[in-house]
Design brief:
The chain is mainly β. Helix content is 14%, strand content 47%. The radius of gyration is 13 Å and the shape is globular.
Amino acid sequence: MSKGEKMAERSVQALSFCSKLQRFFVSGIVGAELRKNVSYNVRIVLHQETGEIQNSHCECPAGKGPTGNH
């Protein structure tokens, strides 16, 4: 957990959230780990009661292409 917290301290530039229709919406701007001055928009939708991920999207190139999980 501490590794994730340290990464969040360095990488998360903005974060917002809201709750509606039994879903928890999180969006933010995250800095690239290996490139300076590059950031990506991230969106995550969670089920409000279970915390299960319902949907997610990131503009980073790692999630695109044949090996991406979007």
